[in-house]
Amino acid sequence: MAGISGGGDHLRKKATGVRTWLQLDSTGESNIVEAGKHGVMRRTGLSGLDLRILDPFLSYPATLIGRERAIIVHLEHIKAIVTAHEVLLLNSREPSVAPFVEELRHRIMQHHQATEALSREEESLLTRGQNGDNTGPPLLLPFEFVVLEACLDAACGYLDEEATALEEEAYPALDEVTSKINTLNLERVHRIKNRLAQLFQRVQKLRDELERLLNNDEYMAKMYLTNKDAVERRLRNSSLSSIKHEIVQRVLDERHGMVSGETLAQDRGNSSRFSVDFHPAEQHHQKRAIRTASSLSRGSQFAIHTSSRRYMIGKSKHLGVKDVEIIVEAYFVRVDATLSGLSTALKSLPRNTQGFLGLSVLGEYVDDTEDYINIMLDDTQNRMMQKAVLFMTAGVVLMAFTTVTGVFSMNIHDFSLFQKNDPPNYYFILFCGGGTACSIVLYLIAISWYKHLGLM
């Protein structure tokens, strides 16, 4: 019964689109979250089309997209949603993703410890600043950029491991097919070449995605989630404080007007009549002040969102996108090394790019091996055709000799040449020997002629 209920829960989750996500917050703590499509949309502010990029049943190329509240990361085996305070990772239990999860948790914990140390240092610097010390604390990358760098590093490392494994398998196979050409070795090299072509396509897609980010500052500016969150909080606090001040000021003004009217009425001697009409008027003014405050609070939400977006766009234009540009450009150079075919640059590049340059060298080695095999096959085919010409010529000569001997072996009684039997069959043997010698001479003449024409 437990197995049946477990299977029913799995089918129900699959039908409703519920998936298991690994949540890592800014402190490095991890939790397993089961959320459906709409739950993730409310949590991250993404649309349904954005979540299709992370669908494991759909094939999408390498993608890095920044939205209002999250960054979508789809790089090789890594499918994640990064916000300013947490990261949601899909398929975290797969063997290829498990090492990345540990590395990501380690980097997040290091960033959290560095952030706490920086806050304590800022407090001490504020105290020292009062004594005339103007030195500032070092700057740290935002949380989302720490996760982004870990994702890019893991994706490049994953491609590097595949390149190394392909090299270790390819070179022995190419050497073997060079020394011994057969169907099994040729099929093995063909499979290796297909894998090499697929790997180049994946690397090319990752390179194109990084190049798209580098060519557009607005795309990179959308990835500053921490700054956008801080700006929205600051604008929200300032707006709420101004709204509260305005409400208090309006209520005080209304009450001040009420008190002045009541004092004036008492001076005229109509205090009883005015005191009866005063309370409904005061309630009306208070309700109007509350309605005004609520309308201001509702309008402030849209104003905060709009002003924060305008502020971030203007800030990105003035201050640039240096942090994310440095990260993306570093890994763009690393990925671009996969597509360079300069084997001489292998010794001068850093060690982590040698595996990628090995792919280019391996590609050239595969092409050279194919050319060598084609040359060997052409040479073998030429030699076989030469032998076929020799055998066909020998066949023609032999057929002519057989025809001649067949004609002279006939028993013709009226022909005087065959009636002499001293020695017996003398002329027959003479014709056979002469025909054989003539056939050999004709065959040698044919071979000499073939060599003269350049066919041999």
Shape: rod-shaped
Number of strands: 6
Radius of gyration from the CA trace?
44 Å
The CATH top-level class label of the domain at 2-141? Mainly Beta
The level of helicity is over 70%
Task: Walk me through this protein's architecture.
The protein has 456 residues and is of the alpha+beta class. Among the domains are: 2-141, Lipocalin, CATH 2.40.128.330; 225-320; 377-453, no CATH class. 71% of the residues lie in helices and 7% in strands. The chain has twelve helices and six strands. The chain has a six-stranded antiparallel beta sheet with strand order 2-1-6-5-4-3. Strand 4 (71-75) and strand 5 (78-82) form a beta hairpin.
List keywords for this structure.
Lipocalin; alpha+beta; 456 residues; disordered N terminus
